[in-house]
Design brief:
alpha/beta, Rossmann fold, single chain, about 300 residues, about 25% helix, 3-stranded mixed beta sheet
């Protein structure tokens, strides 16, 4: 469905469960990102503890703000290692980003989970105050600062950096993974690979009718996602006039938005902002789909091995 570049349709079965109870949108978002009890999650996906809390300096509005971040390092390293910068969705960093960072470290990568919100006095922006285009473009500078910080670490290979963004963070990463002018593709990107996890592709609308893909880019999306739908990302990639061969897609059948929110059944959130709907409002489904998550882990590991050479 994505034309001439690689598409892999992953078929998985839905084996979740339903509960008859009501929960507030706020409570659901907090559970999704912070409070998933470990006893409902298989032991192999429980996130490891961050090895180090760090700060990433960022110049913004003539002042320096310090982005909080959690650094995960491989247990044993020989020389410099590749690194992945992780950018969260609208609810802030949570168990999904920590879990992935722990996996990346176990595979031999350094991983840095960046908190774009706390330094700005934000907790989550999933409601009707859905981030604007200007908000996203401001946040894109977090990526620049993070890559500078990672590249300056003695244990990191600055030539092997990747960016991984989730939902709103995936849309922000898209602003760096693509170029709004096709001839800009000739400029070397600041990172070697991008992984966009159910990204907010509506943010690319402002980039113009012709786009260039600057580095290998993996889109990982749920087929049933109605918050950041596959069709919206397809429309973005269809505008790429160069670098389309650098794009890979993984579409997970039966999966909704946040298929990696392990332990949470699919729910409809009536009050969340939704850029794919008229006026950016409102409502979307989200929830776990463990078969999709498991295949996603396989796909990410293979993609990074191919692009970062680990």
């Amino acid at each position: 469905m994505f034309g001439p570049f690689e598409v892999k349709l992953v078929t998985v079965s839905m084996d979740g469960y339903e509960q008859s109870c009501r929960m507030s949108v706020r409570w659901l978002l907090l559970v999704m990102f912070w409070a998933v009890p470990t006893w409902v999650v298989p032991s192999w996906v429980v996130p490891a503890s961050a090895q180090q809390n760090v700060r990433v300096p960022l110049e913004q509005d003539s002042r320096t703000i310090q982005l909080a971040a959690q650094l995960y390092k491989p247990a044993a390293t020989t020389g410099r290692v590749p690194a992945v910068a992780i950018f969260h969705g609208c609810g802030g960093p949570g168990q999904n980003t920590a879990r992935m960072a722990g996996l990346l470290a176990s595979w031999g990568y350094a991983a840095l989970v960046v908190d774009s919100f706390s330094a700005r006095g934000l907790k989550d922006v999933c409601g009707r105050n859905w981030p604007s285009q200007a908000d996203a473009e401001t946040r894109a500078h977090d990526i620049d600062a993070t890559l500078d910080w990672l590249g300056g670490q003695s244990f990191v290979d600055p030539a092997r950096l990747a960016v991984m963004g989730y939902s709103y963070g995936g849309g922000v990463a898209l602003l760096r993974a693509l170029a709004g002018q096709p001839d800009a593709a000739a400029t070397p990107p600041a990172f070697r690979a991008a992984i966009l996890v159910y990204p907010d592709c509506g943010l690319a609308e402002a980039m113009g009718p012709k786009l260039a893909v600057r580095q290998p880019t993996l889109f990982a999306m749920g087929a049933l996602d109605d918050w950041t739908p596959v069709s919206q990302c397809q429309a973005v990639v269809d505008r790429a006039v160069s670098g389309r061969d650098l794009v890979e897609t993984r579409i997970y059948e039966g999966a909704h938005h946040s298929f990696d929110a392990l332990g949470l059944p699919v729910r409809y959130l009536a009050g969340v902002g939704n850029r794919s709907k008229p006026g950016g409002c409102c409502g979307a489904h989200y929830g776990a789909h463990e078969p999709a998550w498991k295949q996603f882990v396989v796909d990410v590991k293979a993609f990074l091995a191919k692009t970062l050479g680990r």
